[in-house]
Every structure is written in structure tokens, then in C-alpha cells.
Amino acid sequence: MAAPGSKVTGKDRVFWGVGIFMVVAYALIPVLWLVSLSLTPADELGGGGFWPDNPTLENYTGSETGVFQDDQFPAALKNSLGIALIATVLAVILATFAAYAIVRLDFPGKNLVMAGALAIAMFPQVSIIGPLFNMWRDLKLFDTWPGLIIPYMTFTLPLAIWTLSAFFREIPWDLDKAARIDGATPFQAFRKVIAPLAAPGMFTSAILVFIFAWNDFLFATSLTSTNRARTVPAAITFFTGSSQFTFPTGQIAAASVVVTIPIIVMVLIFQRRIVSGLTSGAVKG
Amino acid sequence: MTAATPAAAAATREAMTKKGLSARARSERKLGWMLCAPAVTVMLIVTAYPIAYAVWLSMQRYDLRFPDDRGFVGFDNYSAVLGNSLWWRDLINTSVIMVVSVAIELVLGFALAFVMHRAIFGRGLVRSAILVPYGIITVVAAFAWRFAFSPTEGFVNGLLNTDQSWFTESWSSYLVIILAEVWKTTPFMSLLLLAGFTLVPDDAVKAARVDGASASYRLRKVIIPLMKPAILVAVLFRTMDAFRIFDSVFVMTRGAQGTENVSILGYKTLVSRLNLGLGSAVSVLIFVCVLIIAFVFVKGFGTNLSQQRGEAP
Amino acid sequence: MPLARRSRLAALLVAGALAVTATSCGGDDEGGTPVLKWYARDEAGGVFGAAIEDCNAAAEGRYRIELAPMPNNADEQREQLVRRLAAQDGDIDLMNMDVIWTAEFANAGWIREWPEDQVEAVTEGRLENAVESASFEDRLYGIPLNTNAQLLWYRTDLTEEPPATWDEMIEMADRLEADGEPHDIVEQGQRYEGLVVWFASLLASAGGSILNEEGTEVTLEEEPTRRALEVLRDVSRSSHAMPALATAQEDQGRQAWESGDSAFMVNYGFVWPSANQLAPDIAEKMAWAPFPSVEPDVESTVVAGGFNIGIGAYGDHPDLAVEAATCLANEENQTRNAQDAGLLPVTEALYDDPEVTEAEGDDGVKLFPYAAEMKEALDRATLRPRTPFYNDVSLAIISILHPTADIDPEADVDRLREAIEQALKGEGLL
User: Fold this and answer.
1) Contacts of residue C82 in chain B, CB cutoff 8 Å?
2) Contact C249 A240 (CB under 8 A)
3) I need a surface site. Which of A279, B73, B154, C200 has the fewest CB within 10 A?
4) For chain B, how long is the longest CA-to-CA vector?
5) Cα C181 → chain centroid
6) Rounded distance, CA A72 to CA A272, Å?
7) Are C173 and C159 in contact (CB under 8 A)?
8) Is A126 in Cβ contact with B267 (below 8 Å)?
9) Mutual angle of helices B123-135 and B85-118, in 10-degree steps
């Protein structure tokens, strides 16, 4: 779409070209910097430039310094993917039920649900780490996948419920009414008619939930203790240099690049959905 | 069944009202509760219980290193925190980061949203690029900026031709922390603002232009007033989020050089010193601060939260 | 009703998922061999893995040690351990404890006292300081695994003789600066434990101490404390303070050193193999000397670091854990730790053992050419205060001293005393 009411001139093209270039540079320079660091051999750290003179893959594949040399990072990658995906699926399913009820049904307490969700989104998570740790130990959930899936699911439910409610308000609900008139139970109406219409919204909130679960550091570092469930953001701080005092810059950079790749792939493929997910609820009532 | 008969359906329903409503309302109510139950249960178990526990802990003298020396102290922990200049200094530090970064994000986010909204080509590219900072792991982003500004392995000093040690002074530490925060979260702000742009009808802008209004007049008098709801929501969510900033400060300075904020203070007291009583009091106070911010926005600016969307922390 | 069926299905799925993961948490092998979890930072060169293999073989099926890797940063290691110990977690059988944690852990009852009949096996032949660091109130709570102390590193192409005192070092740096030579002094000035090490070493070298012997009262003798603070300030304010001193940890120091801009560096032995590998031209001109004195003609005293292995109070197999710890910290394993990961041994005899002193890296460079000087430093060394409140004391010291360039020796002696007194009560925000 061109700017309203004007023809595209050469000057416009230059203006927008520069603007777009600046935005892309803004977004990508830190990522390129991580890539560069991850390719920098240890004896070139401190060179002061942006790009290493002798790029190397030793931080990825090196037999001594590569992040894949032992099971720590591969295991963390597997945990991160599995935990984030399961948490996403569960959160979206629960949120879909709740959002449907909130948008479509009249029942006392629905404002309470919305307000409660908002309060949860605001609570400082650091303060529930202690109690949660104790509960998880009693329930044998410490250092397990469910031990992280449950908090991720919980803390993304507000986001998912609010996003899905916004989407559900857009759905032509008369279809649902019609189905119910035709004798369908409310649940059948929901499943047969509304669910297919709601799928795009569910998919969008799934992406947002996944990003949250993929991002978390605090729970991951507090509620896990071994490769069984430790995720990447926590595992990064467990990387060790060649001595107690050596900081593993190269390995951290390499691991960072690896975990950033899925995010880049997702934003490239699902750009439209993420943007609509983040914008849809913001202004529509 | 088709969608062609909404009026008829409504009429039929009207007709059924007298006999069927109470039964239908009851079943609707029951279904509503059932559908919400799983989500509500999970949220209650994972947050309400620990939160209540935190409030209870905040009224105890309870240091995990000295489990025997434990007892109820009422509001002593709160007066210890509120009576300490450290709390107030950290609260000011937190507010500085919050106000400065949200202000910058608003301006920058507006510009980004404008580019995304109006660019005559490459809009998909811009939107994808902007989502990278949004999606990247906060800890990873903080490491990237920390390395970039490091005087030994960083590139920023080479670029600016200086040998500034960014994390050794207060002002420059703030600069880098705010820069990292702005970089990571402006995309979120700009997407909410982008939604606001769609509220501005092209006709209104066109009409103003025909009337000879200057670009800045159009922005101030036409575009911004129309976008006000979106701006308020964006600022509200980012403000509450910025108030709880933790990961990036933790990675970059751990609170050194006067950058300690209330979250770091809470973490230090709870996790590092194991003083659960005092630390819980700090956490509860942080929560209260966030509630106050939300209250000010809702009452002061009339943001209607119930119509807006929540952003997870 | 379909809804009911579906939610029951969902509940089953969740419960199933929980059960699957929960069952994998069992402590014992199928064969019934007790598994001992060893919480430790996984040192370089796979040395701990090799030690575990040897000890497991020697145990002949009586126990099996498994490593539970810890974070890189010592503060984070402590946070992880205490969170679990405070919750009486039985999963920790063995743990590597920084020497400064002993009092806190022992006082809280998180670690077991060493069995009396095994004490001699631990203390015999081991460095006095190392044994002391594993003790609290005259009882032994762990077996020393490795020790550490800082040396002064200097460059023979810049100064033929190392400076004997801090004042002399600053003068030498002045001259180097005037001659246009590298003149930076590298230390650890970041707001973390390393700054406490610097201060405590200066204070001890000036003849002072932070707390009394029992760790109950603040001592901070007026004159030595002021001298220590003066040195901190003078170095930090001089034009020789390394750039970014206020954020420098050991590794930033190493990098600054390897870049060739520095004339002097106080740091641990890991800088030696690193320089040989990453900056051979610097390593050629690199020499070492004791930590500089504060007063002329008084030998310096540094604070010793290192790790001890403690036995978790809530583990199921304390006797086996003691046996396993004794194996993990035996001379063979200490020797390998020294050879492959640069960890300094705690058994005195190893400092005369060519296996250690003559050990060479892959590149044929001697790993511990400084062994004799290090041993002397360790013999003179002292320990940081041993009090259950050490963590609070450390936070208090850092909060007063950082950034070191802003120290006001006269006023800060009293501020330091007040802050540490408050920390010893465990009250208030820090």
C-alpha cells in the first residue's frame, strides 16, 4: 500500500530504503555480533574489531571447547524444545476453554478470572521461587519436565487468555447460535463450528506462549538440577572455561546463536501471525 | 444450518425466553465455570498458594540459615525495609530505568510503527526483523550487549575510538542497561502502537492535509489523539514490565555501580542471604508498587483494562 | 457427555506425563548399588569424570558416584546448594564447597561432621590452612580437595626485579609510564568476592584482621585497616589502575595481561598456562613473585581459597559418602587435577613430587614452574573470616569498598566497621 494520496517518487524510495535499512540494522546488529563472537578463536578475543580475522567453528564443534562436546548443551536443547512445546500446547488448550467461556457465556466471576489473570501477569516471579521449590520437592516434580511445564503454562495463561479472547470477539458467533438453535449442545456448537474458526488465533497465541517458555531463566535455574530438565538459558550459565576463573565467552556466544536460530526461523515464517497476535488485542474491545 | 438467519435465530430465541431462559442460563453458567476451571485451578495452585505463603513469610522472622530462631514479627520486616535508605535508593534506581527506557521506547516505537505502517516496500522484512529482539532470550540479549561494551572483547570502543570502561561508572552502566532494555522491548511497544495506527482513518489525515495542516500539526492534533487508547495500553504494559527488570541487570552488573534495583534487592535478600522474612517483605512491596502503577494508569488515564489484552511478564 | 470424557482424558494424559518423569528420579540403580550425587562445578579436562571412574572402580560395586554439574560462578553455586540444603534435600550426597562456606553450612546443620575415626586420614599430610578451612568450631566438616592463592605476575622485559611492596609497585609503574612503557596494574575490583580477597590480603599483610579468631566480633584494627584502604585507593586512583578495574574479575585481568598493556598483575596460577597458549610472546617475559607487602620488610600474607568436599546432611548413605569423598580427594586424583585442570593440591608432599612440579601441558610448557613460591605463599597464608554470617559480611565489605577509587580511608574505617557489625547480626537490608 502506498502512502495515501501520493505517487511513489524516487525520493520516497530512497527515504524508505534508508528507513528500512536502519530498522533492520537496529534489530540484527546484536545478533550478528553474537555470531561473530561465536566464530572468534579464543586468542583473538580482545582484538577490538567486529569480525574475527580467522573465523573458526571451534566454539561449536571443537573437541575441547565446542558446546556440543558433552551432553550438557544437547540435553538442554532437547529439554528446552520439549518443555516449551508441551507447555505451549497445554496453555493454549486451557486458555481456549477459558477464553471461549469469557467471550461467549454469561456467568458470574468471569471478570474475576480476567482480573486474576492480569494480577498473575504482574506478580514478581522471584518471590514464589522458594515456596514453589518446596512444593515441587514434596510432589516429586523437582528437576522434571512437568516441574517446568506447569509454571510456564501458568504464567503464560494470562497472555493466552487475553489474546484468545481478543480473537474470539472477532468470530461471527451467529454461526454458533444457529448451530445451537439447530439442536446442538453448547459444547457441540463450540467443537464443530467455533473451534475451526478459532484455530488461527490459537496458533498465534501458541507462538507467543512458546516464546515466553523458551525465554525463561529464573524458573529454569531454580527448579532443575541436572541434564534431566535443565533448559538452555540456565545451562548457558553452567558452561565452564578452562579454569575456575576463565569466562567461557565463546561457548556462551555459540550456544546463544544456536538458541536464537529457532526464534529467527519462527519470525520469518510466522511474522504475520505474531504481529496480528500482538496487535489484535491492543485496541479492540 | 447457515449464517443467513441471524435475525430469525434471535427471534426464535426471544420466543423461547419465557420458558427456557432459566434452564439455559443455568447450563450456560455451569459450562462457563467448567471451561474456566482448569485454567483457574492451575493458576491458583501455582501462584495463589505461593503468593499467600510469601505474604505469611513476610510477617515472620525467618532466616533459613538459622531455622531455630523463627517467629511471628508482624510488620517488623516491612518497617525494616521501608526504614532503610537502601530500599528507597533502589526504588529510585528502578524508577529511573523505568521512566527513561519507556520514554525512549515510546518515541522510537512510534517511529518503528510508522515505518511498519507506511513503508512502500519491504514491510514484511521490517516486521520480521523487528520481531527478532522481541523473541530473543533476554539473558542472551544481555550477554550480547555486555560483550559488545566490554573494553576487552567488545567492538563498541573500537567503533567509537575510545577506551571507555562502560560498566565502571554509574551513568555509563545505566546507559548500557537502558540501551539493552530499549533494544529488547521497543518492538513490543511498536507493535502495540502499530495497532493504534490502524485506528487512524486515512480520511482524517487526508482531510487535515487538504486543509493545509503541517506534518507536525497533523501528528499532534489528528494522529496522536486518535491513537491515545493504544498509546496508553502500550505505555502501561511496558511500564509495569520495566519496573520488574531483572535478567539484564543481573547479567550485566549484578547491581553494581548504583544500578541495583528492587528486583535485584529482593533476589539478593531471598536467594543469596536466605532471609525469607525480609526478602518476602521486599517481594510483596514490589507487587504493591506494581498495583499502584496499574491503579494510577487506570484511574488517571482512564485506560479500560478489561477491554485490553494482558501481556505476560 | 463428551466434555467430561475429554477432560478426564486430559487429566489422564497429564498424570501419565507426571508419572513417567517422576519414576526416573529414583536414587538407586537396578542392581541396588547406592548412587552418590556429587554436586561440583565440572572442572576442565574431564578430571572429575576420571576421578569418579577410578573411585567407582575401586568401590567394587559398593557405591557409584555421579556428577551433578554446578554453575560456573561461585555465588550461583552457593545459591543452588543452599536452596536445596535449606529444604533438607536428600539428593546431595557430596558437594564441593568453597572454603568460605564451611561455617555457614556447618552452623545450619546442612553438612555432616566428619566421623571421628576418619579425621586423621583427612588431616594427615594436608596443608594446615586447608584443614582449617574445612573446620568450624574445632570440628572437621569436609575433606580439602584443592587450594589456591594469588601471586604477583610481572614482566622481566619491563622490570628486572619484582616490587616488594605496593608503594614500590606504584613507583615502578610511574617510571614505566614516564618511559612510555606498559604500566598498568591488574587487580580484581568488581563488586564480588574477588574484591574481598584483595582487601583481606592487604589487611592481613598490614597485620590486621576482619574478625576475631572465633568470628564473633569485628576487629579491623585502626592502623592496618587504614593502610589497607590507602593501598586500595592509591592503586585505583593512580593512572596505572587497569581500565575497567571496577568491573574486573580474574578473567578480565587475564585478558588485559595477555593484551600486553599491563606491567603487573595479582592473580591465580591459571594465567600461566593461558598466557602460554594464547599469548606466547607475553608468556616468555612473564615471571612471578609473592603478593607485594604493605609495609616494607614485613612479608605479605594472602588469603587462601580452594574447595573442600562436604557430606550432605540429608543423604541416605553418609558412610559411603565419606569413603567416596576420601577417594575423590586422594593423592592420585589431586595429582591428576593439578596436571589436567591446574588445581593446586592440598597434600603437602605433592609440592615436592615431580609428577606435579614437573608436569607439562600438551604443548610441553611446564604447568607449575611457580610451585615453590606458591607453597611459600600458602604456608604464610591466612583465611577469610569464619562465621555463619560470612556471606553477609562479604556483602557488607563490598558495599562499602566498591568502587575502590572512591575510598576515603579515614571515614571508611568506621563505615566498614558499622556495616560488618550490622552484618554479624544478620539484620536489615544489605
Assistant:
1) 64-65, 274
2) no
3) B73
4) 82
5) 33
6) 35
7) no
8) yes
9) 160
Asked if residues A104 and B19 have their Cβ atoms less than 8 Å apart, the reply is no
Q: How does strand C35-40 pair with strand C64-69? A: parallel
Pairing outcome for strands C262-267 and C94-98: unpaired
Q: Name the nearest CA neighbour of C271 among C187, C356, C153, C145.
A: C153
Low-confidence ranges of chain C (pLDDT < 50): 1-30
Q: What is the DSSP letter of C218?
A: B
Q: Write phi, then psi, for B60 (nearest 5 degrees).
A: -115, 150
Which amino acid appears at position B157 of this protein? N
B265 contacts B88 by C-beta, under 8 angstroms: no
Please enumerate, as own/partner, the contacts of B271-274 that have beta carbons within 8 Å and a separation of 24 or more. B271/A126, B271/A129, B271/C79, B271/C83, B272/C75, B272/C78, B272/C79, B272/C391, B272/C395, B273/B63, B273/C391, B273/C392, B273/C395, B273/C430, B274/B63, B274/B64, B274/B65, B274/C82, B274/C86
pLDDT tens-digit map of B65-120: 887 788 899 899 999 899 888 899 999 999 999 999 999 999 999 989 888 888 88
- The predicted-structure confidence for B196-252, as pLDDT tens digits, reads as follows 887 788 788 788 888 887 888 888 888 888 888 788 888 888 898 899 888 888 888
d(CA B92, CA B260): 10
Instruction: Please check whether residue A138 touches B, CB under 8 A.
Output: no
Alpha-carbon A123 to chain mean position: 19
Give this prediction's pTM. Answer: 0.81
Is A258 exposed, middle or buried (CB count within 10 Å of its CB: 0-12, 13-18, 19+)? middle
CA angle centred on C237, ends C236 and C243, rounded to 5°: 60
Q: Which of chain C's residues have a Cβ under 8 Å away from the Cβ of A238?
A: 69-72
- Report strand pairing: C262-267 vs C184-186: parallel
- The beta-carbon neighbor of C21 closest among A144, A187, A242 is A144
Q: Does B277 touch chain C (CB under 8 A)?
A: no
Asked if residues A95 and B39 have their Cβ atoms less than 8 Å apart, the reply is: yes
Cα–Cα dist C46/C67, whole Å? 11
Query: Is the Cβ–Cβ distance between C127 and C348 less than 8 Å?
Result: yes
Q: Is the dihedral of CA B308, B310, C3, C6 positive or negative?
A: positive
Residues 6+ apart with CB under 8 A from C63: C33, C34, C35, C36, C56, C317, C320, C323, C324
DSSP letter, residue A165: H
Q: How far apart are CA A111 and CA A190, in angstroms?
A: 21
- Evaluate whether C222 touches C206 at the Cβ level (below 8 Å): no
Pairwise pLDDT comparison (A128 vs B102), residue with the higher score: B102
Could you give the CA distance from residue B194 to residue C79 in angstroms, rounded to a whole number?
43
The burial of C4, by beta-carbon neighbours within 10 Å (0-12 exposed, 13-18 middle, 19 or more buried), is given as exposed
Burial pattern C304-318, b for ≥16 Cβ within 10 A else e, equals bbbbbbbbbbbbebe
Q: DSSP letter at A285?
A: -
DSSP character at residue C112:
P
Contacts of C102 (CB under 8 A, 6+ apart): C111, C133, C134, C135, C136, C141, C142, C308, C310, C386
Provide φ and ψ at A91, rounded to 5°. Answer: -60, -40
Q: Is A186 on the interface with B (CB under 8 A)?
A: yes
Instruction: Say if residues C168 and C297 touch (Cβ distance below 8 Å).
Output: no
Q: What is the ipTM of this complex?
A: 0.85
